[in-house]
């Protein structure tokens, strides 16, 4: 069985290529299709990130039906005993969301490729080109871990409690209510805002910022291992990255997949505006 850390460096992955079938490792790339075709990690397969979203209204980022997840994972050849290496070309949003989906279905064998395809290319590591046709499998997904997600109702019940925090991964303008992407703008009362791309190092191919400095920054914001943390954005895409960071730092972090698309379109939910939580 393959042994990989949760946060996997590109050079360390490159040193172990190619994988044999009995290694039970699958590199799943969620970069833009044209970027995958032009250059991808040898042996990787492409997954359309839309397949892991429900696309329902008003909250298109919710976990999709299990048969949709089963079809998507079967199409790329995933099996229950396969270690998944998740990658994208945007610094971890889609890859982090895939890890959240894997958590929800109890598939705990996974890693995040630090910086994804962007870092891989920046480091000049070997690439392949063209389309890839995976050998399909018969993956049967089941929702076995609802504890990786918090619902709107659960968040409302926890608001104001000292051992609870909300990490809003949207832009400052969305958080304050200056930019409105739902019926109402603003943020969940008590939520703290740290926009997702600020957590990536653009000088290192979008790798995650220094982890101990990141941990200290988050602690100063009120986000640490002592709290249950809900993270969200508009559709739980950008917060795929913040969910991932929380996992890497060992936090009790959970995705709010309804996100602002659900919260901001519900006239009954509490909303704050402005800079302050």
In short:
With 277 residues, the protein is of the alpha/beta class. The protein is 29% helix and 14% strand.
Write a structural description.
With 277 residues, this protein is α/β, with parallel strands linked by helices. The chain has 2 domains: 7-145, Oxidized Rhodanese, domain 1 (3-Layer(aba) Sandwich); 149-263, 3-Layer(aba) Sandwich (Oxidized Rhodanese, domain 1). Helix content is 29%, strand content 14%. It contains 10 helices and 11 strands. The strands form 3 sheets. It has a 5-stranded parallel sheet. It has a 4-stranded parallel sheet with strand order 7-6-10-11. Strand 8 (200-201) and strand 9 (207-208) form a beta hairpin. It starts with 6 loop residues before the first strand and ends in a 14-residue tail after the last helix. The mean pLDDT is 97.
Layout of helices and strands:
Blueprint: E1 7-8, H1 10-14, E2 25-29, H2 33-38, E3 45-46, H3 66-75, E4 83-87, H4 93-104, E5 110-113, H5 116-122, H6 152-158, E6 164-168, H7 172-176, E7 192-193, E8 200-201, E9 207-208, H8 211-221, E10 228-232, H9 238-248, E11 252-255, H10 259-263
Parallel strand pairs: 1-5, 2-3, 2-4, 4-5, 6-7, 6-10, 10-11
Antiparallel strand pairs: 8-9
Helix pairs in contact: 4-9
């Amino acid at each position: 069985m393959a042994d990989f850390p949760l946060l996997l460096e590109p050079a360390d992955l490159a040193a172990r290529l190619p994988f044999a079938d009995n290694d039970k490792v699958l590199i799943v790339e969620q970069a833009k299709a044209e970027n995958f075709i032009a250059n991808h990690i040898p042996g990787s397969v492409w997954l359309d990130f839309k397949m892991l979203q429900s696309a329902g209204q008003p909250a298109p980022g919710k976990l999709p039906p299990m048969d949709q997840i089963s079809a998507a994972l079967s199409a790329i050849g995933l099996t229950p005993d396969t270690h998944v290496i998740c990658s994208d070309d945007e610094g971890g949003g889609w890859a982090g969301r895939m890890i959240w989906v894997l958590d929800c279905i109890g598939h705990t064998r996974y890693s995040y490729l630090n910086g994804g395809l962007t870092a891989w290319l920046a480091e000049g590591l070997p690439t392949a080109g063209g389309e890839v046709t995976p050998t399909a499998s018969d993956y049967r997904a089941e929702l076995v871990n609802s504890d990786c997600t918090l619902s709107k109702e659960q968040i409302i019940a926890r608001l104001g409690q000292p051992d609870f925090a909300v990490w809003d991964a949207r832009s400052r303008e969305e958080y304050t209510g200056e930019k409105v992407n739902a019926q109402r703008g603003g943020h969940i009362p008590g939520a703290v805002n740290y926009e997702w791309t600020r957590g990536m190092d653009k000088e290192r191919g979008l790798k995650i910022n220094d982890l101990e400095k990141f941990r200290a920054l988050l602690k100063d914001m009120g986000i640490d291992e002592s709290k249950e943390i809900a993270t969200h954005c508009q559709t739980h895409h950008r917060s795929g990255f913040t969910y991932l960071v929380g996992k890497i730092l060992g936090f009790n972090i959970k995705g709010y997949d309804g996100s602002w698309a659900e919260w901001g379109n519900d006239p009954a939910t509490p909303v704050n505006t402005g800079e302050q939580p």
